[in-house]
Design goal:
The complex is a heterodimer of chains A (837) and B (251). Chain A is α+β, with helices and mostly antiparallel strands and 837 residues long. Chain A is built from 22 helices and 22 strands. A six-stranded mixed barrel of chain A has the order 2-3-9-6-8-7. Chain A has a six-stranded mixed barrel with strand order 13-15-20-17-19-18. Chain A is elongated, with a radius of gyration of 34 Å. The two termini of chain A are 33 Å apart. Chain B has 251 residues and is an alpha/beta fold. Chain B has helices at residues 6-25, 74-81, 104-114, 130-140, 146-156, 172-184, 202-219, 230-235, and strands spanning 30-43, 46-59, 63-68, 89-94, 97-98, 115-119, 190-194, 222-226, 238-243, 246-250. In chain B, strands 6-7-8-3-9-10 form a six-stranded mixed sheet. In chain B, strands 2-1-4-5 form a four-stranded antiparallel sheet, with helices on one face. In chain B, helix 6 (172-184) packs parallel to helix 7 (202-219). Chain B is globular and about 50 Å long. Classes of the chains: A alpha+beta (837), B alpha/beta (251). The A-B interface holds A 1-3, 6, 9-10, 13-14, 16-17, 19, 291-292, 294-305, 382-384, 386-388, 834-837 and B 75, 78-79, 82-85, 104-105, 108-113, 115, 117, 119-121, 123, 125-129, 132, 136-137, 139-142, 144, 146, 166, 172, 182, 186, 194, 199.
């Protein structure tokens, strides 16, 4: 028989004997928690890719001011991609005596490739703000046009009427409620009209010099799309752009980042708690196998045999438990996805397999991290222990063994967080917390011992127990404290954090942006808002200019070929604004904001990410070509912007007074309740030149996402709670053997069951209150760090934390402790004494 | 606790006297040779001498009982003779090999090859069945046919029907009989027993003594016992008495 077989047999024997229960449970919980979150995040990520595609109408959008070469579409088809072409241009549309400048979109069959074109439910109803209920089948037939509510209002037209466009007449057959590519970019003009491409030639609308955008939409497998994009980008001629789903709106990206952090945090919390349980369970496992090892040493087993025996043992155990955890994770995430799908009405796409691998690795790292050091000690068990039971392992209680596990855990953190600094920080914080906890716990125990002479016998013996097991008691209190810390952080602080996050998008978040407001229109517009009882936020001036030079270098789009995103920015015109003071959702991260208007330099503040994208830094000079003149400014500060507040924000902001001589337009935003959408028609009529951007659907999407994440966090929190119970169980089990022996002696000496129970009650209560205190302290610090550092939300301390922590600690530990030791109390003493011989 | 196999015990009773005669007749080649064994333990500032200059020779096939009051150093001597502990001074030769010239691992291999053990608290592994406990030493040394040999030995001690039981479901006498089977399954040259009847009642203790000596006689094993039990002492060819860590009497 070889060692592997023997090890497997011993594993089975241990399993049958129930020796591995805690260890396996702790591992399964850690692994299933990681895999659940991994799978779920993966699915959400995929769903978001899909959703972003819907914003675009496809996975990739190629657009140009001239007809696109047919090679692009052929190539896309060659890469197994679906394609459809569209033509967009602005044109006057007339009905009766009304004329309206509309954005026309001529589409071909297949449109849209992603997302749905939704038509108003009851076209006969004269209320234009009906919720969408019908998905369009196909596109407008030749000779017909589909219009949106703004065209309907602007032209005062009904379904069935014929409108004039160019040289043809088209019958209005449908009212479009929602278009998939509606909210892409800030340059879409309202109102909108959808026609069939076949009518385009006859209308003679497109003449040389027309402002036309020819577009090609493609969609397909992510990998194929990527291949096509790689092929396409070098081919692009001047005036051709490509836009993919990764160029998603910063608002959504920012919200998603936060969502990912929340979920990851919840999963890591359960891993930490489970790690505590694994550490405790391993310690108990080793303790209970000391005798066996000594006997085997006696029977001729060498150190290497013992090491290999238990290493195989733990490897197999880890593989089994991790696999079980993965399976549980798959089931749990499916449940989670379905549950959330029911709530928000979306079906998540299927996940990839990477989270399973991550889960397996997590399980193995946890188990080996915390079991390898004691295993290396286990083989050194003196064989003499068979005769003298007090010969054990001196360093079994020590923290050196846990250091390795902690290091492995940190490695896991760094890997999961993909951030060395964060991982090291977590480890240092963890070590610091443990050290401080132990120091405080030790001091408190000493203090309590001073009061030992007072009080009843139970108090006396309870304290004596704590004192005799000072180190073991501290280990238990710290382990429980760490477990509870994660739980408290997740319960109390989680609620605070999520609420905090949700209040960032209050119900009256601006959902309409107005751009292209002429300076003289400002008073009129303000009057309009007042008349309709709409609160209007600040007006921001804006001057458009093309970036021509950075320092003394000419800016060439070609030098940004590596980064198409940056290249597009460079090729577009910049929106330059100015303001006196920093906006609330902006934070200066380098340099200084201007104090007064009295400086000689042209001061410029750039958004940090954007500055990195186009390759400028603090102190650089940027020259813009504005209305035929060059204007140079020096970057004196870099800002970070919270995009998911949906406020008006600018990449480039100047000190006031610098651009006064240039032609400016104004931008503003406001909140329009869904019941008042009819006002938009009046606005369009009163200010035909102003562009309206509707971000209501995007805000709804982000709000829904926050809600989804909040629920997902709650679900993942269940794992942490389970892991917490395991820690409690493991902590009680850790001293059970010792307690049995102790109980036997007490009973032999005539102690009644109640006396013993009372002494233990005191001991458990002290342990519980220590753990609760540690938990409250740790979770306060953790909450502060998480909200201020990781999530950039202000931290609001929760006054109930301490009370709740200590109370929960005392109650849970005493209840669990008494339940766990109940059988011990009723056991006849001789049986126990004989066994421990 | 009553033993369930009176028929087998009876046979062993009859064999008892023969074993003594046989052990006397065996050759006098020493299988254990202890020289000036001294064990000291430092406790704070004082040095405690547990065993002082104990020398001892045991011939192959001989059976000796180490007796003495509690704390006289009996168990320490046993631990040193079996190489479970290291002496402060002096050494032990087992089958001609100076065991303290070996490292702990080499001693473990030597134990697996030469020695069998029995303990007061039986020291069966609680997670293993009776059969698996008996198989363990063979499995550790990588021997083949471990199961057959173990079943054979369990049958010899009358526990074949209890093979799949766990130690906690066995009486003390049954547990010690499993331990006997485990000790003999490797066919050791030497058997060390530390108070093998210490945790058993008188009747069960006698049955265990009979069984142990019966097998010992049959296998020609050398037996070293540490005991308080006079019945055990009577069965041994020689007695070594320890007091305060010194041999006071060898008879």
């Amino acid at each position: 028989m070889n060692l592997l077989q023997l090890s497997m047999k011993m594993l089975l024997r241990d399993w049958r004997a129930g020796e591995l229960r805690i260890l396996v449970l702790a591992l399964i919980i850690a692994v299933s928690s990681v895999t659940t979150v991994g799978f779920f995040a993966d699915r959400v990520q995929r769903a978001l890719v899909l959703e972003s595609s819907q914003l675009l109408g496809g996975d990739l959008l190629v657009s140009a001011s001239h007809a696109l070469p047919s090679a692009y579409e052929q190539r896309a088809k060659y890469f197994r991609l679906q394609t459809t072409t569209l033509t967009r241009f602005p044109s006057m549309v007339s009905y009766a005596d009304n004329n309206l400048l509309c954005a026309i979109k001529a589409v071909t069959p297949g449109y849209p490739l992603r997302g749905k074109l939704q038509l108003a439910a009851s076209p006969d109803d004269d209320k234009p703000a009906q919720p969408p209920a019908r998905v369009a089948q196909g596109i407008p037939a030749p000779g017909t046009a589909w219009i949106d509510e703004k065209v309907m209002a602007g032209l005062d037209i009904k379904l069935g009427d014929k409108l004039e466009i160019g040289t043809i007449e088209l019958t209005v057959t449908e009212l479009v409620a929602n278009e998939p590519d509606h909210s892409v970019g800030f340059v879409n003009m309202n109102p909108r009209l959808l026609i069939n491409e076949q009518d385009l030639a006859a209308s003679q609308l497109i003449q040389p010099g027309s402002r036309v955008s020819y577009q090609l939409l493609v969609a397909g497998e992510i990998a194929d799309v990527a291949t096509f994009r790689d092929w396409l980008e070098p081919q692009l001629m001047p005036g051709e752009h490509v836009e993919g789903i990764q160029d998603a709106r910063p608002e959504i990206r920012s919200a998603l980042d936060r969502a990912g952090k929340f979920l990851g945090l919840a999963a890591l919390a359960s891993v930490v708690v489970a790690a505590v349980a694994v550490a405790l369970a391993t310690r108990r496992f080793i303790q209970r196998h000391l005798d066996g090892c000594a006997v085997m040493r006696c029977l001729g087993a060498t150190q290497s045999i013992l090491l290999r025996l238990y290493l195989y043992h733990f490897l197999m155990l880890g593989a089994f438990a991790s696999l079980a955890g993965c399976v549980l994770g798959v089931v749990a995430q499916e449940f989670l996805s379905r549950w959330l799908a029911e709530l928000v009405g979306t079906v998540l796409p299927l996940p990839g397999s990477l989270p399973a691998a991550q889960g397996m690795l997590t399980g193995m790292v946890l188990l080996l991290g915390f079991s390898l050091p004691p295993l290396l000690n286990l083989r050194q068990v003196p064989a003499l222990r068979v005769i003298r039971r007090d010969m054990g392992m001196a360093n079994l209680h020590g923290f050196t063994g846990y250091a390795f596990g902690l290091a492995m855990l940190s490695a896991l953190f760094i890997w999961k967080a993909d951030n060395l600094k964060l991982g090291l920080l977590v480890m240092l914080g963890f070590l610091l917390a443990v050290t401080v906890f132990i120091a405080i716990g030790w001091l408190l125990i000493r203090l309590m011992l001073l009061m030992r002479t007072q009080g009843s016998g139970a108090w006396h013996y309870g304290l004596a127990n704590i004192k005799r097991r000072t180190l073991a008691s501290l280990v238990q209190a710290v382990a429980l404290g760490l477990g509870m810390m994660a739980l408290l952080t997740l319960t109390l602080i989680r609620t605070d954090l999520l609420q905090n996050w949700q209040t960032r998008l209050p119900p009256d978040t601006p959902n309409r942006f107005l751009i292209n407001i002429q300076p003289e229109q400002q008073p009129e517009l303000a009057a309009f808002f007042e008349q309709h009882n709409i609160a209007q936020s600040d007006m921001f001036p804006m001057v458009r200019g093309r970036l021509t030079m950075i320092n003394d270098e000419l800016v060439r789009p070609d030098s940004y070929n590596d980064d198409p995103h940056a290249k597009q920015f460079i090729m577009r015109e910049f929106n330059l604004s100015w303001m006196e003071s920093l906006q609330q959702d902006n934070e200066i991260i380098a340099g200084e904001w201007w104090q007064s208007r009295e400086t000689t330099t042209n001061e410029l503040s750039m958004e940090d990410e954007f500055a990195k994208t186009i390759g400028v830094k603090l102190g650089d000079r940027m020259t813009f070509h504005i209305a035929g003149q060059d204007f140079t400014a020096t970057i004196t500060s870099l800002r970070k912007i919270d995009w998911d507040t949906f406020h008006v924000n600018f990449f480039a902001v100047l000190r006031p007074g610098l651009l006064d001589t240039y032609p400016a337009t104004y931008v503003t935003s406001f909140y329009l309740p869904s019941t008042q959408t009819g006002i938009m028609q009046n606005l369009v009529r009163a200010f035909p030149n102003i562009l309206i951007i509707d971000v209501a659907s995007m805000i709804e999407r982000v709000q829904a996402m926050i809600g989804q994440v909040a629920r997902a966090v709650e679900f993942v929190f269940l794992f942490t709670l389970l892991a917490g119970f395991i820690v409690l169980y493991a902590a009680i089990a850790a001293t059970q053997d010792e307690r049995k022996y102790e109980a036997a002696i007490f009973r032999t000496l005539g102690a009644r069951k109640q006396q013993l129970a009372r002494a233990w009650l005191v001991e458990f209560a002290i342990l519980g209150s220590l753990a609760g205190m540690f938990a409250a302290a740790g979770s306060s610090v953790l909450g502060y760090v998480i909200s201020e550092r990781a999530l950039h939300l202000p931290y609001i301390p929760n006054p109930w934390l301490w009370l709740a922590g200590i109370l929960i600690g005392i109650i849970s530990v005493t209840v669990a402790g008494l339940i766990g030791t109940r059988s011990t109390l009723s056991q006849p003493p001789l049986l126990t004494l004989r066994k421990s011989g | 606790m009553a033993d369930n196999h009176p028929t087998i015990s009876k046979n062993f009773f009859m064999a008892k006297n023969m074993s003594i005669e046989q052990s006397i007749q065996t050759n006098n080649q020493p299988i254990i040779q202890a020289q000036d064994l001294t064990k000291e333990i430092e406790t704070g500032e004082t040095i405690l001498t547990i065993l002082k200059d104990v020398s001892l020779q045991v011939s192959a096939g001989e059976s000796i009982a180490v007796i003495g009051a509690s704390g006289s150093g009996k168990s320490t001597l046993l631990g040193l003779l079996a190489g479970l502990d290291t002496p402060t001074r002096g050494t032990v030769f087992l089958d001609g090999q100076d065991i303290f010239k070996l490292d702990e691992d080499e001693r473990a291999v030597l134990r697996g090859r030469l020695l069998g053990f029995m303990f007061q608290s039986f020291q069966l592994l609680p997670a293993l069945t009776a059969l698996e406990n008996v198989m363990l030493p063979l499995e550790l040394s990588g021997a083949s046919q471990a199961r057959d040999a173990a079943i054979n030995w369990l049958t010899r001690v009358g526990l074949e029907k209890r093979a799949t039981h766990y130690p906690r479901h066995l009486s003390g006498g049954e547990q010690q009989r499993v331990a006997i089977a485990r000790a003999f399954v490797t066919q050791p040259k030497l058997l060390f027993a530390d108070e093998p009847t210490g945790n058993l009642d008188a009747v069960t203790g006698s049955q265990i003594i009979d069984l142990m000596f019966e097998l010992n006689r049959e296998q020609g094993t050398t037996l070293v016992l540490v005991t308080h039990d006079e019945r055990l002492t009577e069965c041994c060819a020689r007695t070594v008495k320890l007091a305060a860590g010194k041999t006071v009497n060898q008879s």
